[in-house]
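Re: the 370-residue chain
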Amino acid sequence: MSDLGNVGLYFHVPFCLRRCPYCDFYSTTRLEDRNAYARALCRVVESAPLEGKQAVTVYFGGGTPSLLGTELLPVLEAVRKKLPLAADAEITLEANPGAVTEEELTLLRQGGFNRISLGLQAAEKTDLQTLGRIHTAEEGARAVALCRKAGFENLSVDIMLATPGQTVEKAIALAAWAADLGPEHLSAYLLKIEDGTPFARQEVVRRCPDGDEAAEIYLAVSRLLREKGYEHYEISNFARPGFQSRHNTLYWQLDEYLGIGPSAHSLLGGRRFWFPRDLDAFLTAEDPWSLPVDDGPGGGWEEMVMLALRLARGLDLAAARQLDASRTAALEARARGMVAVGLARRQGKRLSLTEEGFLLSNEIITRLIQ
C-alpha cells in the first residue's frame, strides 16, 4: 500500500427532482435514466486510468446523488474491485432532505458510505421557496436525525448566505439553527448569481444584500460558528476538529483526483481534463475514456497560490519558491501592504488571508499573482 499513489475519486450524479434557480451545475430531471447511469458508472470505473493508485476519498456529488439510492452500492463495489481503498477512506454522499429515506441511508451506511453532506440551504419557508428547495426546515432536521439513526457519525450541512431578503439577523438565526443540529462540518456559501440561471434572468441580484451587507452577514456568521466550536478552515467551510472535508482538501492542495460523469473534472498525472456536459454521450460511448477534453497542465505556481489562499492555513511560501522563486518574491512584496491593512497575515513561512481578506479573495489573489 505504501508504494501506491493516493487519489480521490469524484462521481457526478446529474439527476434532480427539480433544478434550483441559482444552480449552474450540470443536471437533468430525466430520472428514468438513473439505473442506466449507475451501470455506466460501473463500466467507466472498470477501465479508469488508476493503475498504481489507492483511493483515499470517494465523493458522489451532483445533482442529487441520493436519488440513485442503493444503486450507488454497485458503483462503490466497482471502485473496490478496481483499486485498493484506504482503510480510513472518506466516502461521501451528497443528499437533499427531500430525497432520503431511513432504509436507504441504513443500507448505504452498511455498504461503506461514512459521510453525508445535506443541502439544507435555508430554514424559513419563504426562503426555501425562493431558492427552489422542495423540503421544509422540519424535514431538514428530520433528515439529520435519519442520518444519525442510520449510523453516520460524519455529517456536513450546507447553508446559503446573502440570499434575497436576508438580513444579518436572519443569517445569524439560520447559522445557529444549522449548527444546533450538531453537524461535524458546515458549509456557508455566499450566493453567487451565475450567468444563464433563472436567478440571472430574473435579476434576483436586485433583491439580494449589497456588497457591504453581504460582508457583514459573512463576518457575523463566521464569528457565530467559531463561537460554537467550528474552525473556519476554508473560505466557505467550517469544521469541528478532525472533520475537515478530506476530499475537497485534495482539490485545494493540488493532490490528484479523478472525476467521472458528465461535467466532472480531473487532475491526474499533471494534466487537467473533463467530461463534456452530455449525459447521452456518457451513457452510449463505446469507449467512455475517449470523451474527456484535455485542459492542459495542472499543478503550476498560479494554481498553488490561488487554491492555497482559500485555506486558513494559507500558502507555503517555501513550496511556492521551489516552483517559481522570482514570482514568489514579487508576491511577498505585494503582500506586505495587505498584511498592513489586515487583509492578510504572515506567520513564518506561511501567508494566509484573514476573514476580511476572504471576502476580497478574488481581487487579492489576482493582485498577488499579476
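The mean pLDDT is 96.
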